[in-house]
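User: For documentation purposes, I need each entry recorded in a consistent format: the amino acid sequence on its own, followed directly by the corresponding structure tokens. There are two entries in this batch. Please keep commentary to a minimum and don't merge the entries.

Assistant: Recorded as requested. Entry 1:
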Amino acid sequence: MSQWLTIYKKEMLHFWRNKQLIWLPLVMMLIGIIDVITYYYLPEVIELSGGLPDGAVFDVPAIKGHEAILMGLDQLSLMGSLVIIAISMGTIANERNSGLAEIMLTKPIHHFNYVTAKWFSLITITMFSLCLAIGLNWYYTNILFDTISIKALLQTCLFYSLWFVFIVTIAVFFNSFLSKSGLVFAFTTLTLFILAIINTAFGHRLPYFPNQLSNHIGSMLLTGDITKQLLITSSLIGFLILVLLTAASFIFKHHKL
């Protein structure tokens, strides 16, 4: 356990020295609120930009609080995912490419400890940033739109965080056998793109597909109930995370550095 903690502390210190513990939460918070604030002040923005032609009418449809929350989640799923992939793409690949991983593993360090400690350090910074982003989105939603309960906020953070844990795990999986961080970024992004295509084409037939998580969270926010579909989808994502993390450890152990 001390070996695992040593690697974990090393990674967290690396995040601190690179200021990722500062700029990542700020970027994620900006991504989480930009659509909500823009939508609310859109009439004023149009007016300041010169307004509409004479006779033209532009009405911004009113939205509910849960729709504002989902608006922020959609933006996080798009832009936030790319940011998280960017900070995850070199977690092992860079050390493999520089030879540092090989030097470290000449010591009695277990491969599973090495991979999972790095994975959990990424999870820590990701969850910290994501919860701040969702919390700020919730704050502005309560001010500008409808009141959303703290219970709903916590449930949203809990379930939606699984999606980002899934993304980090995919990146770590590709890190386990690729030595170029650019390739890790490309393959992780491609994987998410393929999942999105499958969801678009067959989502209506696959209610428990990972990409359906946001839809089920939307139903939860609307009704206030945690649905069976949300629980099963979350369990499936959790299972995939476990499989990918185990595979990453196994591949890293047997793949030539």
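Entry 2:
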Amino acid sequence: MHELALAESVLQILEEQAAVKGYTRVKTVHLEVGGLSCVEPEALRFQFEAVTRGSLAEGARLAINRVPGEGWCLPCARSVAVASFLAPCPRCGRYEVQVTGGEELQIKELEVE
């Protein structure tokens, strides 16, 4: 389950930033999770709760914003929505689609004390 490693990475970033910025408690973590990132939001929430016990982020709320996948269709020369890496273009049906978004996992905002 890679959500455990992702939750640990988020906590590590929070601890590093706390040392730099001087905050002592994290109240909310706003994450942007791409639809093509293969991250299960509920599993990530569960793992985040587990790894943050006893840390500055214990009890913090994990607010997840899902970002849809998108790609560039070469034949159409347009940006299109994509549901998977192997999906054809929803406009022309061809498979010459280059993924341009939806793979991210980013901390977008923090609420701290």
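Summary note for entry 2:
The longest strand covers residues 26-34.
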